[in-house]
Amino acid sequence: xxxxxxxxxxxxxxxxxxxxxxxxxxxxxxxxxxxxxxxxxxxxxxxxxxxxxxxxxxxxxxxxxxxxxxxxxxxxxxxxxxxxxxxxxxxxxxxxxxxxxxxxxxxxxxxxxxxxxxxxxxxxxxxxxxxxxxxxxxxxxxxxxxxxxxxxxxxxxxxxxxxxxxxxxxxxxxxxxxxxxxxxxxxxxxxxxxxxxxxxxxxxxxxxxxxxxxxxxxxxxxxxxxxxxxxxxxxxxxxxxxxxxxxxxxxxxxxxxxxxxxxxxxxxxxxxxxxxxxxxxxxxxxxxxxxxxxxxxxxxxxxxxxxxx
Length: 309
What we know:
The protein has 309 residues and is of the alpha+beta class. The protein has one domain. Helices cover 40% and strands 20% of the residues. The chain contains ten helices and nine strands.
């Protein structure tokens, strides 16, 4: 058990070190100022992305909506197996298991850093501010719901890899502009691998007539995907200010020391954790993920397809 504990600590420290490198890179990137407000997106396209979810919904209300959809997906299959009690019971159990799992896919960001802080949604997390998140797998994407004090204010949609069809970000962005309308291009200036400044398209930005913000972000450098983010602009602005303040308050120095809280361990078996990490290749988040087809998240419905056989 001690060896397992050390291994888990070491694995998290490696991820934290990689995150430090990502953060350092982000600091060097300077967002260029944009002129004027973003264009207004097409209302029907915004409505389609939002779906049946509304801002200020509680976590439980969103869970209820998700579970209603899950139950609807089983309705016909359960009806067709009414004459086969064994298969019918199996389907009903699968439905109950799937709806029960929805609630387990919730996370509270109460100030304790963890695996989500080195994930595709890391830039959306604001620890210790009453923020929480619920995620669900959709047919062609993964949707992350963000709550501020249990009030829904943002949806982060990470498209599955096959949705990209091999398109570069600018090409995929052009396709999205065909759907939402002309967007505002936001660029960053950053140093490349050899220290030369370069200009890069960072995200596309829209707004709605009702106070929403919408952006298409490029997360392909580490995760090989592009993501749509729809949010209540006023709440997002407050959360962004909270994150900026939290980042400014972070102690400077080695990220590994910050993760373990700066306190030396009294256990001799952990004294050489850093030595075990030193010298090993540290992969950026996403380096190994790139070989996979899609972002992998728990998918409640995955086994259900076998139940109709």
